[in-house]
Design goal:
Layout (H helix, E strand, L loop, with lengths): L13 E2 L9 E2 L36 E4 L6 E6 L6 H13 L5 H6 L3 E2 L5 E4 L5 H9 L4 E4 L6 E8 L2 E8 L11
Parallel strand pairs: 6-7
Antiparallel strand pairs: 1-2, 3-4, 4-8, 5-6, 8-9
């Protein structure tokens, strides 16, 4: 559900996992999720500095949802997208779990969010009246490209039979396939 290796082709190093066989996987370079400066302007250590035993700040949020009563998997979803990953994933979870949408319908909803600044709206996906209503209420609104790349599956019903229903974000690569 996530393709995070940070930069395209990650660290540009491939490993075979110690098997000695051809193939393998790319190593990530999540070090870019740490602060580039180990200390601030006053010389105090930055909390997100590179340091042994630490994990970088990251917005990766591949998500599994389980039924509390049965323990069965209900839904799985995730997305690439940097700092907006959590917004994209939450939108899809909310659409499926609270509004009863199919995974594809929830994924297709417009993206929106905020990173502690202006309200970010996916460009050309919100009615002009909505944008103007937000601005009239004093919101700073920035319309921008928000290519989420969400993928999700959810347990559903087809003609009374349990099935897995999938969704793939048309904003990026990915398709839904299966029986």
């Amino acid at each position: 559900m996530t393709t995070t290796i940070e930069d395209a082709f990650g660290a540009r190093l491939m490993t075979d996992g110690g098997t000695g066989k051809a193939g393998g996987f790319l190593l990530n370079n999540e070090l870019t999720d740490f602060s580039f400066a180990p200390s601030d302007a006053e010389g105090k250590p930055v909390a997100n500095r590179v340091q042994a035993g630490k994990r970088p700040r990251s917005s990766m949020a591949p998500t599994l949802v389980f039924d509390k009563a049965t323990g069965q998997l209900v839904m799985s979803g995730g997305s690439p997208g940097g700092a907006l990953i959590i917004h994209y994933t939450a939108k899809t979870l909310y659409g499926v779990l609270h509004w009863g949408l199919l995974p594809q319908q929830a994924i297709d909803l417009p993206n929106f969010g905020s990173l502690g600044g202006p309200s970010l709206l996916e460009e050309k996906r919100f009615a002009p009246a909505t944008v103007e209503a937000l601005r009239a209420r004093g919101a700073e609104v920035r319309e921008m490209s928000m290519t989420s790349g969400l993928q999700a599956i959810a347990r559903g019903q087809a003609h009374g039979t349990p099935v897995w229903l999938g969704g793939a974000d048309p904003r990026r690569e990915g398709v839904v396939m299966g029986d």
